[in-house]
Amino acid sequence: MAGIYIHIPFCFSRCGYCDFYKTTKLDKLEPFLVALKSEIKHYSLLFQEKITTLYFGGGTPSLLKSSHFDEIFSLLRDSYIFSENIEITIECNPDDLTKDYIDKLLESGFNRISIGIQSFHEKDLQEMGRRHSSAQALQAIKDAYSGGFRNIGMDLIYGLPWSNTAAFGENLEIVKTLPINHLSAYHLTFEEGTPFDRLLKRGVYREITDSESLNQYELLREFAAKEGFEHYEVSNFCKPGFRSRHNSSYWDGSPYIGFGPGSHSYYSSYRQWNKADLNLYLKSDREKIVEKEVLDISDRVNELIMLGLRTAGGVNLEAIEALDKQMYSKVVAASKKWLQAGNLYNENKFLKCNAKSWFVVDGIIKDLFV
User: Does pLDDT of 369 surpass 80?
Assistant: First the structure.
């Protein structure tokens, strides 16, 4: 079982909060596709795992034409072993989702769609630099469903400095009317180097208070529970049977390979990644673009802690013990105060964070690191 991630780094415009690698130089799209196909071929003999998930992220993958996807899919199927029930996801901007484009996505082989809504308030969309309207967002979800998609996800952002809890609640009220199976809801963070970060430093924006953040998070959790969404990761909710299998593979330690500038791969005890540099990527010089690190035992233990505590599955303590008994003892000892405080609980040797404490899980994770 393994996954493939393909990073499409192109956007028509830049959103103020986003720190993913992207470019607005659309004239380099065709050369990028040539380099992408070269990379896909290059790793076909090195990565022989059966592929159970395929994910197109970005950037804006929905900038590609259906003919582009057909070429990529053809090459992937010739080069890798696809499972029969493979999950194939595409991230899309609402304004790209015409009925014709939705039909072609389904014909190409996509069976899961993730739509970048972020908010249904026009002010929020304008402030964030989104290029769609609230009406387009609603129509995109409805058209995706009527067109044939039955695995539909959407994103929301909360914790916006110009907004409030009531406005976020209005977004959630709209969500309940939509035919979606998956909701990713992220608290805004001011990532270093983004336009939002610069506005924060200039005093134009402010970070909302901890109490405001907690109120919005609790509102989100209450909404999800009432509407039948499983809270299976800090920022991810789904109807039963509709977890993102691709993202879950990141969290459970399954191998995956990434294609495109800025993409990451994980296999066995090492990670590698492509530098976030489109011009370098276009040269297809693996030695210059690829960086790699071998994970030592402490790295692997810390990854089990970090990824496990952010999910409903928790941290497999037996897996840590199998890696290093001394580190296992340290983790058990460090967890005692959090167990006594009720933030963590031990269920069949899986150390889990209760959902309410996910709001402060980063601090717990840091405390448990070996």
Answer: yes
